[in-house]
Amino acid sequence: MPLYEHVFISRQDLSNTQAEGLIEHFGTVLADNGGAVVESEYWGVKTMAYKINKNRKGHYAFLKTDAPATAVQEMERLMRLHDDVMRVLTIKVDGHEEGPSVQMQKRDDRGDRGDRRERR
């Protein structure tokens, strides 16, 4: 089955448990349609670059899935209809990377970028 990565933003006035409940809800939608969530991450509340529906912040969530296209289309349709979900991004990938995503890694673990003060 094809591999996908999804990021969605939900409203800032939800609690953390409600936002994480959305991840479980959309995971069950995939499972009901023959797909599976390989890994999910809750990134927390982050400030957005611009306002969306009068919100400056939102709960970010990330899903790695292994699902047929029809299951992904149904999940996206339900996400777009859900009142708490503001934005959805789905990308088809060749393979999932191992370990946590870049958003979940500590700043020190992101590689050898050097100290910014040394660039002068």
TrEMBL record:
Please state what the protein is called.
Answer: Small ribosomal subunit protein bS6
Basic and acidic residues bias spans: 93-120
Name the domain of life: Bacteria
Q: Name one GO biological process term.
A: translation
Q: What does this protein do?
A: Binds together with bS18 to 16S ribosomal RNA.
Annotated source species: Thalassovita taeanensis
Which cellular component terms (GO) are annotated to the entry?
Answer: cytosolic small ribosomal subunit
SUPFAM superfamilies (UniProt xref):
Ribosomal protein S6
Membrane-crossing residues? none
> Mind listing the UniProt keywords for this protein, alphabetically?
Ribonucleoprotein, Ribosomal protein, RNA-binding, rRNA-binding
* CDD domains attached to this UniProt entry: bS6
User: Lineage of the source organism?
Assistant: Bacteria, Pseudomonadati, Pseudomonadota, Alphaproteobacteria, Rhodobacterales
Recorded hits in NCBIfam families, A to Z, give:
S6
Chain spans, region Disordered: 92-120
Q: Which GO terms describe its molecular function?
A: small ribosomal subunit rRNA binding; structural constituent of ribosome
Q: Which family does it belong to?
A: Belongs to the bacterial ribosomal protein bS6 family.
Tagged with keyword Metal-binding: no
